[in-house]
Design a protein that fits this description.
Helices cover about 35% and strands about 15% of the residues. The protein is an alpha/beta fold. It has a six-stranded parallel beta sheet with strand order 3-2-1-4-5-6, sandwiched between helices. It contains five helices and six strands, in the order βαβαβαβαβαβ.
Length: about 210
């Protein structure tokens, strides 16, 4: 399967890319051009050759997005400006207007580009448990029946994007991820936002 992976060089993107490659998919990596991402792209080319294609661009530019979507069977959309611990240095709460242009506007551009293809790609969107707001006083787990109560700009963007995906007319899936801290030494206050007693994952009995 040909898979477009947005945010391929981010925290979750790098792990997702490894798994897609392991499963034998051909992956088109879409991300912004930075020195770090260019270095990672060269490393990928050496390791995986024709199984990986790198395409740099901006989600806010329809021409970049349309070029990335062409010929793909599925889209895994991870690219998003987050509140903290971003590899790009951007922060959704410091510059919410710019973040919304990338997060919501970029998602809308992707969905429009998918609908313009003759064979509409399937669309997987990575949302977040942030949409539920503060829930430490509630027993786990969170479920799809719980009402979202977004607090920060980032969470509001996720809720808006979920609605866009659901109304897109495409085959879609939405994953609401829990805390996904980088697997590297990072000294940032954001690491301590998740209480030690929080239930990060919960599997209900069958």
């Amino acid at each position: 399967m040909k898979v477009l992976l947005t945010g391929a060089f981010g925290n979750i993107g790098t792990s997702t890319l490894d798994e897609l490659i392991r499963r034998g998919h051909t992956v088109r990596c879409f991300d912004i051009r930075t020195r770090r991402n260019e270095r990672l792209a060269r490393r990928l080319a050496r390791r995986h050759g024709g199984q990986v294609e790198v395409m740099f661009g901006d989600l806010r530019k329809p021409e970049d997005v349309n070029r990335a979507v062409v010929g793909q069977d599925a889209i895994v959309h991870l690219a998003f400006v987050i509140p903290k611990l971003s590899a790009t240095g951007l922060n959704s709460e410091d510059d919410p207007d710019r973040a919304r242009a990338i997060n919501v506007g970029g998602t809308r551009n992707l969905l429009l580009a998918c609908r313009e293809q003759s064979n509409h790609p399937a669309f997987l969107f990575a949302s977040s448990l942030h949409i539920y707001g503060k829930t430490q006083n509630e027993p786990p787990p969170r479920t799809i029946n719980d009402t979202p109560h977004p607090i920060e700009h980032y969470a509001h963007h996720k809720v808006e994007c979920e609605m866009l995906v659901q109304q897109s007319g495409l085959r879609w899936a939405i994953l609401r991820l829990g805390a996904a801290l980088p697997v590297r030494l990072v000294l940032d206050p954001g690491m301590f936002d998740v209480p030690l007693a929080a239930a990060i994952q919960h599997r209900s009995p069958k």
